[in-house]
Specification:
Radius of gyration of chain A: 22 Å
Structural class of chain A: mainly alpha
Mean pLDDT of chain A: 86
Oligomer: heterodimer
Distance between the termini of chain A: 29 Å
Order of helices and strands of chain A: HHHHHHHHHHHH
Number of strands of chain B: 20
Radius of gyration of chain B: 25 Å
Largest sheet of chain A: none
Strand content of chain B: 25-35%
Low-confidence stretches of chain A: none
Order of helices and strands of chain B: EEEHEEEHHHEHEHEEHHEEEEEEEEEE
Helix content of chain B: 10-25%
Shape of chain B: elongated
Number of strands of chain A: 0
Shape of chain A: globular
Mean pLDDT of chain B: 86
Number of helices of chain A: 12
Distance between the termini of chain B: 36 Å
């Protein structure tokens, strides 16, 4: 019975998860190493890579700050509307990414209500980097906060109170006590947040406008190449994304192995 | 530093945590706040610390009103039940934390902080363990690090919230002794919270017994143990036999039997409750005042022999305890009839309000005479 269950699980995992992953790499290298390198050297592809890293590079640090602030407020203080805030943090998980993207189009698009606010300036939100960053932030917002809230709640406020009683200021307490106490959970949250930020398709697809070499992120670029029957190039970019995913997975496992006990309590998703 | 609490009130929603508490503590005293859970003892400690604020009333340190002074400016040493050590810092860094977060102008040099931390670790008998991390220490060692950390800021008062609550019995006993010695060495005014009466009796100069948000009694160990102010205090300080009885002048009677005689006769008579500890029952002669009992069970628990008893003339169960080498012990055999005198007891108004007879049913204490001087 045990072996049956194990083999069933392995077959399922192999068939649905491992095989597709392997096939991405197989397809990418089907026409040989040179085609692969040429596909990656394509200026549009490189622009997509740059844009993906740029968007994630902006969105992840911002969500790091927002997430820590939100988790700190929720875990360590009592205030009115706390439960509403907790629910709001989960909103991006329950809303379809496409809807999330659409919201920004409706706000900042040609007839959006917020567009007149920017009328006098050169700032363009939709079909440009700011829109992509906004959509990415929206979609990846819960990762850091969700990781930290249970961890901070479980740790309680004794350590902070001890630091304050010893004469530390609020900032000193945060830097020397609160932050070090959650550092591994925080890193874990950032990792997940980053993985999602780089791989996000739906929300970004709506706001990006798919302008080659300008507003195409890696996942969008894969779709375009694929639709043009340029399979080798599509899979080459896809393999890059897959590599990033594997890297994240590796780091995540490493963290879990080393600091599993500290992370265990916060595994809620 | 002497501490004065005046008219402290604190509510948590509809729950009255503290009700008009007044308390004065002299400089250098070692005080225990003792009470059952929910009695307000921890809340009182947290108000002294500045972790909570009283709804009304004042907290003064050395004559200065500190009621609105925030925690970090009160200069108190607070020790938590679960230590609250900073996990990611070495023991030495933990102890030196209070010095290293001082504003730049007042901060000692790194080497001075290090020396001070090592000195304090020496004081708490953990010299040489400065480079370890908290998780490498035992519970008792961690609590001593927490104490050293609290002492590093030269606190005006040291506050400990159930400091030994998370430790096992043996370590707890050692640490008690050790804390007593440390207090003698440092002389810092110290207040600790406990629900363990033994801990309070053993450690404190004075004990503040709390119940339902108020102070039930304040006094030295002798005072609270020998002259308990209320049935609650008597009951809380140890196991208790309660004997419903009548007072007739100097005599305390159960049924037809005179179980005790007070030294000074009273001009009152009526029902009363006799409170007597199991350890204060001793065998006496047939003609002496005492209560006749039949032994139903005898059990030895370590150095104490505990006997279950049934009163011979009324429906009442009692317990007696004797040191195992006491000369009375051989007489406590199952089935034996004995007469026991009440070596030490307290009289309180009867809790049975049904037969309302004069002054004795009033709610104040009517007597706590001793049958014999110790």
């Amino acid at each position: 019975m045990r072996w049956l269950l194990i083999s069933l699980a392995l077959t399922f995992l192999g068939g649905f998860l491992l095989l597709p992953l392997v096939s991405v790499f197989v397809e990418a290298f089907r026409n040989g190493w040179e085609t692969y390198v040429i596909a990656l050297q394509d200026p549009d592809a490189q622009a997509a890579v740059r844009l993906t890293f740029l968007a994630a590079g902006i969105a992840v640090p911002l969500n790091l700050v927002f997430g820590v602030a939100a988790a700190w407020a929720i875990a360590k203080f009592e205030f009115r509307g706390k439960s509403i805030l907790v629910t709001l943090i989960d909103l991006p998980f329950s809303v379809s990414p496409v809807v999330a993207g659409l919201v920004y189009v409706l706000m900042f698009g040609a007839s959006g209500w917020a567009t007149p606010l920017l009328a006098g300036t050169d700032i363009q939100i939709i079909f440009a980097l700011p829109g992509i960053v906004l959509a990415t932030i929206f979609v990846t917002f819960p990762f850091v906060a969700r990781e930290l809230i249970p961890l901070m709640q479980e740790q309680g406020t004794d350590d902070e109170q001890a630091a304050l009683s010893l004469g530390a200021s609020g900032w000193q307490t945060f830097w020397h006590v609160t932050l070090p106490n959650v550092r591994w959970g925080l890193l874990y949250g950032v990792l997940l947040c980053n993985a999602r930020a780089m791989g996000e398709f739906g929300a970004v697809s709506v706001v990006s406008g798919h302008i080659r070499g300008h507003t195409n992120t890696m996942p969008l670029h894969v779709e375009i190449l694929y639709n043009e029957y340029n399979f080798a190039a599509a899979f080459a970019i896809a393999s890059l994304l897959a590599t990033l995913a594997l890297l994240t997975l590796g780091l995540k496992s490493l963290l879990e192995a080393r600091h599993g006990s500290e992370l265990a309590r916060s595994q809620k998703h | 530093m002497e501490i004065a609490l005046c008219n402290i009130n604190k509510n948590f929603g509809a729950f009255r945590a503290l009700n008009e508490v007044d308390l004065k503590i002299d400089s250098g005293e070692l005080i225990a706040l003792l009470g059952p859970s929910g009695s307000g003892k921890t809340t009182l400690l947290r108000i002294i610390a500045g972790l909570e604020y009283a709804d009304t009333g004042t907290v003064a340190f050395g004559g200065t009103d500190m009621s609105r002074t925030p925690l970090r400016e009160r200069q108190i040493g607070f020790v938590f039940q679960h230590y609250a050590l900073f996990k990611h810092m070495t023991v030495r860094a933990n102890v030196g934390f209070g010095l290293s977060v001082k504003p730049r102008g007042k901060r000692p040099l790194k080497s001075a902080i290090r020396d001070c931390a090592d000195e304090l670790l020496e004081l708490v008998q953990l010299g040489g363990l400065g480079d370890r991390y908290p998780h490498q220490l035992s519970g008792g060692q961690r609590q001593r690090v927490a104490l050293a950390r609290a002492l590093a800021i030269e606190p005006r008062v040291l506050l400990l919230d159930e400091p030994f609550g998370a430790l096992d019995a043996k370590v707890r006993k050692e640490l008690r002794q050790w804390l007593r010695e440390l207090h003698q060495k440092t002389g810092v005014t110290t207040i600790f919270v406990t629900h363990d009466q033994e801990e309070a009796l053993e450690l404190a100069d004075r004990i503040v017994i709390m119940n339902e948000g108020g102070i039930a009694q304040i006094g030295t160990v002798d005072q609270v143990y020998e002259r308990p102010a209320s049935p609650f205090v008597f009951d809380f300080l140890g196991s208790t036999n309660i004997i419903p009885a009548r007072v007739e002048g100097a005599a305390v009677t159960v049924g037809d039997e005179v179980i005790a005689k007070e030294k000074e006769p009273r001009q009152i008579s009526g029902p009363a409750d006799v409170y007597v500890r199991p350890g204060d029952l001793r065998i006496t002669g047939e003609s002496e005042p005492g209560i006749s009992v039949v032994v139903t069970q005898v059990q030895r628990t370590g150095p104490i022999v505990r006997a279950s008893l049934r009163a011979a003339n009324v429906d009442l169960r009692l317990t007696a305890e004797l040191p195992h080498l006491h000369h009375d012990v051989p007489h406590f055999r199952v089935g034996a009839s004995l007469k026991l005198r009440l070596a030490l007891f307290s009289l309180f108004p009867s809790s049975q309000q049904s037969d309302n007879e004069g002054v004795l049913s009033e709610s104040f204490l009517i007597g706590r005479e001793r049958a014999r001087a110790r």
